[in-house]
Amino acid sequence: MDHTSVFLRKFLYDEGIDPDLRRLIHTVSVAGKYISSLLKAANRKMAGTQNTSAEDQLEVDKQADIILKDMITALDYVHDYASEEQETSIKTPHKNPKFSVSVDPLDGSSLIDVNLAVGTIVGIHPAEKLVDTGRHMLAALYILYGPLTTLVYTSGKGVHEFVLCPEGEFVLTKSHIRMKEQGSIYSPGGLRSEWVSAHRNFIDDLVITDYKLRYSGGLVPDFNQILMKGGGLFSYPALQKAPQGKLRLLFELYPLAFLCEQAGGMATDGTTPILDLKLEKLHQRAPIYIGSKHEVKKAATYFQGSNFSDTP
Ligand code: F6P
């Protein structure tokens, strides 16, 4: 940090966004600092409970959720807090609320015991539009806990990266991040034996055209790599036993799709833009193809007229 550093707080002020939205994003960044410290405290204990998706919870999964919930719902203009760790959303008693917030407190936490990167994903929606489509989102961000803790953010005015410096402030490191039309890496989720044939043929196409494999099993670091390298493709497809794939539309896909589009990329479920998919229930899942335009459009050519639930 030096005298030319641009702090997140100042950046948000200069962006001219709604002051309450500014405070909300700043609050999320403070929660991110606490979660970053929790992870450094090396508590890898299982909580002995499962979340709504029947995944085993770590103590830090629950703690991260509590930190975010307590800090976000204390803001008297927040209406609804929806967390991937909880079955239903929490409605606040606040009068005249402006925003509803979706949170995946610690995505990829099964990677904590092997010391790989994990992340927090946040979507900010107008108060009454949490269950709608992703098109109304006001802001989206993720915090990536790797060798550095970074925060990647958009409020619809480009995508910007901040790094948590030792003094405890998020400082701007990259502004107006853009993806190229085409990249050279691919990150394919799901078991190959479970892929539908259209997806398998598409991935084989990437392999024979010399795309390099880059998959850690953490959505935030895997997407972050594609964004920061300027392109490529992350996919988590429809599976034969799970036609809606694995990843959650509200908690994971809407925020990343918003960021991706803002960086000049694309995100679809194979054919339909992720942000146009209608959310019917909080924990709804969807397949995803996200990254630079060339690869996402190419995926669509494999899905035209194909059946998501076919067998190999
Ligand atoms: O949704 C949790 C998550 O861990 C994501 O972060 C990641 O992209 C995905 O699941 C990995 O799934 P799999 O273990 O099937 O590759």
UniProtKB/TrEMBL annotation:
Q: Which reaction does this enzyme catalyse, per its entry? A: beta-D-fructose 1,6-bisphosphate + H2O = beta-D-fructose 6-phosphate + phosphate
Q: Which UniProt keywords apply?
A: Carbohydrate metabolism, Cytoplasm, Hydrolase, Magnesium, Metal-binding
Subcellular localization, per the record?
Cytoplasm
Q: Which GO terms describe its molecular function?
A: fructose 1,6-bisphosphate 1-phosphatase activity; magnesium ion binding
Broad class of the protein's primary localization: cytoplasm
Q: Which residues form the Fructose-1-6-bisphosphatase class 1 C-terminal domain?
A: 179-303
Q: Where is the Fructose-1-6-bisphosphatase class I N-terminal domain?
A: 20-174
The record lists Mg(2+) 1 as bound by E84, D104, L106
Q: Which cofactor does it need?
A: Mg(2+)
Cofactor notes: Binds 2 magnesium ions per subunit.
Q: Where does substrate bind?
A: D107, G108, S109, S110, Y215, K246
What residues bind Mg(2+) 2, as annotated? Answer: D104, D107, E252
Q: Write one Pfam family the protein is assigned to.
A: FBPase
* Enzyme Commission identifier(s): 3.1.3.11
Q: What Gene Ontology cellular component terms go with this record?
A: cytosol
Pathway membership of this protein? Carbohydrate biosynthesis; Calvin cycle
Gene Ontology biological process: fructose 1,6-bisphosphate metabolic process; fructose 6-phosphate metabolic process; fructose metabolic process; gluconeogenesis; sucrose biosynthetic process
In terms of PANTHER family, this protein maps to: FRUCTOSE-1,6-BISPHOSPHATASE-RELATED, SEDOHEPTULOSE-1,7-BISPHOSPHATASE, CHLOROPLASTIC
Q: How does it assemble?
A: Homotetramer.
Family of the protein in this entry: Belongs to the FBPase class 1 family.
Q: What is this protein called?
A: Fructose-1,6-bisphosphatase class 1
**What is this organism's lineage?**
Bacteria, Candidatus Blackallbacteria
